[in-house]
Amino acid sequence: MGLRHLSADTDADRVAGALAEDGAVIVDGLAPPDLLDRIAAELDPHLALTPTGPDDFSGRNTRRTGALIARSPSSRQLVMDPLILSTTGRFLSQATNFQLHLTQAIAIGPGSPAQPIHRDQWAFDFFPFPAGYEVQCNTIWAMTDFTEENGATRVVPGSNKAADKLRFEQSDSVAAEMERGSVLVYSGSVYHGGGANQSDQTRIGLNITYNVAWLRQEENRYLSVPREVAATLPVELLRLMGYARGAYALGYIDDLRDPIEAVRPGLSRPGFGDN
To answer: Contact 144/96 with Cβ under 8 angstroms?
Structure first.
């Protein structure tokens, strides 16, 4: 069983439906080439300075460059993509609101072995979420073509419905092959991992993920995006980054103040909750 491919003009209901059924789906050609060119130019110097991973899971020949909102203004367009945000809202509809979980460019170098198959939601200290209760909606945008040879992300379709803490082999998975500008959308519960890069080229993808707002974010965005940069950002992006109250009362400042006041005074909302 391979992964489903949907066109860029599809609707969020179809994407969310495929996620619920298979755990992952590819939307072809969602990002225009000129936008990817700008993002690549902005990130190239940061990727060059990023050390490779310290262990087999992170990849000893893989570079993971975060803080995309601060380092690549053009990447904000992908973070705020309407189809992705609408899909996330539907997929995580059991929660009051959701937030940006992490932003990261992943560059898998030639000769890299495959990453162990895992669930992203294991980052929450392996907490056993109830079956069917989704806490993450994730994306990997193809900055280069993704092929089986160059380390395309591998997915075990339908494993979002499997038991927790299982062990899968690479042979149980399929390669999420897609052209540059396409995006793999996948749940935090689906088993997956980076593929082995057996080519002579570096495979680059942008991992932009979202989680329910009552869980901690993987990337500490309040420190990775300097205050002076945050103060210039649109309020919608700031609230997605976490300058908002999760659920009813999580994350307010001192005397129950709206956290948006920390960076954009005068734009606060009264009372509890931001949705």
So the answer is: no
